[in-house]
Amino acid sequence: MPVDSKRICGPEITKNPYNFLINGNEKGELIINGKRRDGRKPDQARPLFLRPGLISQAKGSAYIEQNHTKVICAVYGPREVIRKEDFSMKGQITCEFKFATFSCKKKRGHQQDSEEKDYSVQLLEALEPAVQLDKFPKSQVNLYLTVLQNDGSALAASITCASLALAHAGIEMFDLVVGSSVRIHGNEILVDPCEEEEFHSNTNIGVDEGGVVLGLMPSINQISALTSKGELNFDTTSQAVKTCIQNCQKVYPVLQNCLVNSLKEKD
Amino acid sequence: MATSTICVPGQRILRTDDDHISGNGTYTRNGYIYSTLVGYVFTQTNDDGKTIVEVRSSKTQNVVPSEDDIVTARVTNVNARFCKCSILSIGKTKLQEPFRGTLRKEDVRATEKDKVEMYKCFRPGDIIAAQVLSLGDAQSYLLSTSENELGVVIATSETGGTMVPISWCKMQCTKTLSEEFRKVAKVQPQFIEYSS
């Protein structure tokens, strides 16, 4: 949507409220007395809530909630490819990732910005290896992800949510994909970081400061997506990947249970 | 035979051996059969005495047209060389969203192909039974009606009345009794299903 040029701006002496908010939050230690700011241990993930099938008009859908991180995903298709593209015997997946305008501390635009486009591509890369694309030649499956509230680890939550929605839509898959993210802070690895713990490239500078996001197909034990931010040593990265895999393995039974229960409820 | 076992994608069902074959909704990897869907596990014995393992989901199956499928389509556009249709259902499965199909002049009937006149075979709005010849190009699927059982099933006359077939190439309006040309399908009674 275009910017509303007729909107009345505030007086010239007004100060941006974000200046006060963001600076206040990013200062201070992440770990005090072995505990994180929200009282969690470094290796403790947030409680997880999953529910497939909320959006009635979509073929499949899912909702994930990790405290204040809330993501909803809708799957449509397999449907015809509308745009003229090359003939392909494989199916296609499209993915649209969007932060809702009200989801973050700072207001998001209506159009996808570069960060959201980047996340869309990463999501697509995480999910594509898991889907049996040869089952729907010449057609495409559309995924729409909306972050309703962002409190960190939105990409990891989205990966989990999207694979749940795909399974709910009855798209044939080799395996589910589970997402997990960690924040690396010196020697510490913080599992499932929230917004104030997440790595920001403009404020957290130094060696071994960064974040890793990983997508795992637990049953066939393959990593489908891996991204890291910040300046990390090899040892730290490999340790972070191991922690992520462990975390994914913990979440996997929850996903399985959730799908089994949703099928039982229907009958 | 149905079991009450529920599977999720990526779940290992059992080891493949000479007696077990992976069926719909499953795949084989490293000697094991895995599920690809959320659903119940079914086992069936085929003629060779082997057991086929299947996973069936309660959702309506995801279908896309594939070669040799019999489809039901609505004619949307007719010209001298081909007609365009939108595929409404594949076999017995109704599609949620239509796929585009093209029926070329030479695929209308099997005999006297060069004498086919498209305007005497189809009209926009006709419901036809057709077979998928190939996946076609990027835009549409290629259809064929070159069999007696395939062609126009339901049509309305120019005045809007329903028409009944009177020969393999003619239909008659039930109201005005006017005759119009169509490539009429000889619909097989065993394929007709009446919705309640």
UniProtKB/TrEMBL annotation, chain A:
One GO MF annotation is: RNA binding
* InterPro entries on file: ExoRNase_PH_dom1, ExoRNase_PH_dom2_sf, PNPase/RNase_PH_dom_sf, Ribosomal_Su5_D2-typ_SF, RNase_PH
Identify the residues that the record assigns to the Exoribonuclease phosphorolytic domain, covering every copy: 44-172
Q: Which UniProt keywords apply?
A: Cytoplasm, Exosome, Nucleus, RNA-binding, rRNA processing
Domain of life of the native organism: Eukaryota
GO CC field: cytoplasmic exosome (RNase complex); nuclear exosome (RNase complex); nucleolus
The protein's location, in the record's own words, is: Cytoplasm; Nucleus, Nucleolus
Pfam families from the entry? RNase_PH (PF01138)
Query: Manganese as a keyword?
Result: no
Q: Name one GO biological process term.
A: nuclear mRNA surveillance
Query: Which PANTHER family does this chain map to?
Result: EXOSOME COMPLEX COMPONENT, EXOSOME COMPLEX COMPONENT MTR3
What task does this protein carry out? Non-catalytic component of the RNA exosome complex which has 3'->5' exoribonuclease activity and participates in a multitude of cellular RNA processing and degradation events.
| Assigned protein family | Belongs to the RNase PH family.
Subunit info?
Component of the RNA exosome complex.
Q: Can you name this protein? A: Exosome complex component MTR3
**Organism of this sequence:** Lottia gigantea (Giant owl limpet)
UniProtKB/TrEMBL annotation, chain B:
Record's protein name: Exosome complex component CSL4
Its predominant location is nucleus
Keywords from the UniProt entry: Cytoplasm, Exosome
* Organism superkingdom: Eukaryota
List, in alphabetical order, the Gene Ontology terms for molecular function in this entry.
RNA binding
A Pfam family per the record: ECR1_N
Q: Where in the cell is it found?
A: Nucleus, Nucleolus
